[in-house]
Amino acid sequence: MGPGWIATIILGGIAGWLASLVMNRDASMGIFWNIVVGIVGGVIGSSIGSVTGFLTTDAGWIMYLITATIGAVVLLGGVNMIQRGRMR
């Protein structure tokens, strides 16, 4: 069983913050957007992890954090690509 709602928000915030550091967007994002990006990234990461078999139902909190961070990095990468396209 996965983490509960409160744990999901906490893990999402951590994952979003880590992703914003990796993607060098920490200065432009506040805690609210870190949490949002982390939660959406968690959905993306969980989907990818389930399809590839990387994330199973008995995965621990660390695996959820890793997949949420990977998903958040993918999300921020997509946002970066869209924003660069608008600047041209």
Helices and strands in order:
Elements: H1 5-22, H2 31-52, H3 61-87
Helix pairs in contact: 1-2, 1-3, 2-3
What does this structure look like?
With 88 residues, the chain is mainly alpha-helical. The protein has 3 helices and no strands.
From the structure above, extract its key features.
3 helices; 0% strand; mainly alpha; 88 residues; single chain; 76% helix
Radius of gyration: 13 Å
What's the tally of helices? 3
Uncertain runs are none
Structure class: mainly alpha
Question: What does this entry show, briefly?
Answer:
Helices cover 76% and strands 0% of the residues. It contains three helices and no strands.
